[in-house]
Model the fold of this input.
Amino acid sequence: MVRFLATSLLIMAGSAAAQSVPAAAPASDLSWLHGDWNGTGAVFGAPSQATLNAGPALEGKFVELSYRFTTSGQRAFAFEGRGFYSVADWRGQWFDSTGARRTLTGAVADGELSGEWGDTATERGRSQYRRGADGTLEVIDQVLRADGQWHVFATHRFVRAEEQVSSGTR
Done:
């Protein structure tokens, strides 16, 4: 739901839609996401490099997602965002380098963090953080278009940073 998490949890945001997100799971269900991740993917069709850092914050009362990416090509740009989810109800706030501040509402179940961001006054979006059977992490970011259809604008596949170091790919 970070991190965002439309330019991933990210450049944009969803509160009316967020109300449809199912009830929250215990914080322990998100431990699989905690750590430092590096990945590649695409944002608005441009190749990108990304990092995601996730973990407990503020004495375990929140989970913090810190997400960064840079794109290459003709539309090269950099983005950074940070989200905080309360483990009590998976609601929170997202802040990013575009100057945006978005409401977050999320749910954790079966190796997935699903988050919706924004409200009727902002762009609305959703981000899904899915744990792969091979230990990778897939992040899919979507924005809600005026026609009511969800549009994928960013996808990234991450591996844990320590796995890259041990395999010599860092």
About this structure: The CA atoms of residues 144 and 150 lie 5 Å apart. DSSP finds two helices and ten strands in the chain. The mean pLDDT is 82. The beta strands are 35-43, 46-57, 62-71, 78-86, 91-96, 101-109, 112-117, 125-131, 137-144, 150-160.
